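User: Predict the complex with adenine.
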Amino acid sequence: MNTITNDIKDPSLASEGVRRVEWAARDMPVLKAIAERFEAEKPLAGQRITACLHVTTETANLLLTLKAGGAEVAICASNPLSTQDETAAALAEVYGLQTFCIKGEDNDTYYRHINQALDIKPTLTMDDGADTVGIIHSERRELIPGIIGGTEETTTGVIRLRSMSKDGVLAYPIVAVNDADTKHLFDNRYGTGQSTLDGILRATNVLLAGRKVVVAGYGWCGKGISMRAKGHGAQVIVTEIDPTKAIEAAMDGHEVMTMDKAAPIGDVFITVTGCKDVLAERHFAKLKDGAIICNSGHFNAEIDIAALERMATKRGARPFVDEYVFADGRKTYLLGEGRLINLAAAEGHPASVMDMSFANQALCSEWMVKNAATLDKGVYTVPEEIDKQVASLKLDTMGLEIDELTPDQARYLSSWTEGT
Ligand code: ADE
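Assistant: Here is the predicted structure with adenine placed in the model:
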């Protein structure tokens, strides 16, 4: 008997979803090579994976790779607004995965879906933002003995996991996929850089040239967004709390100032700090009329929306754009309800960059299964051989060749006796 119960928006979207998943696959050659090996070797046989990820065409290709490796997979969304309903329909109806996600679901449904995906009693968890780990450690502790390990995709999730580990409460080993060079240097920088502007442009169709774009946070995501906004002809202002990153922003050619100073002069504000209340009441009070505000960090806590709702009246302006009118008549436009704009209003990062992130996810799941017996509770970095393997495979698929050290050069680099 088929016991799979899915919760998706519309099963009839499945064929459109399949076409889109196949479109993404064209640009994911590294993941494809891993899927072919997994199909032959079945390294995940017997594993049950609860994946809580943005349900996109790229994620679908990762999930199919895990399935090819022999795993049973249940998927739920890692954000209420990031699901592509066609992809979800394809996963449920055509690819046979247990699928629980609907774009625009409310908070209760979001958490119910995570719980449903956990009902497969996972042996492995795969998170983007650590919500699954959070629920397992609070409401579903009975699952812990059956879990051998997990992986985490994003900076915000890794920060949460490290603080759980520091407090001694993390109950199983988790690999911080985000920390692989082949993840954050490309996904966070070039992926977020492009997809964030894509989301803003699809939602608003504003011209960025000549506008002041304020980027809050100069981590890899902030660097990518600033670089791309500058490329559009925007004047980029960076706000930071870290002095080193602020110097970096200044030397990259951006203006650096506090948010209090930027608030009255910015035209478009993008938060990517991982922190809360980066745009708050005191900033809203002095925003320029017509300012656009949005977030591309993991959680919707970066903009204090509750304060905005207290201060202004709201009406929808266009899809993913809400207009707020303050008592003095000024208007501001909040995009995507303050949720990650690149996934709310666009399609997230392009497949060719997710290829590397998800190759790491697949290989780290395999690594976790192979090494489970010897791993302690805690947060692990991606093994260097996996990171380098992903880089080499990607380079090959890009048709690029690099030099190799001669034996003499290798000796030179590992010795300390040769000098001037
Ligand atoms: N995070 C950012 N972009 C993504 C994508 N295209 N798929 C899954 N997760 C993402």
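Residues 181-204 form the longest helix (24 residues).
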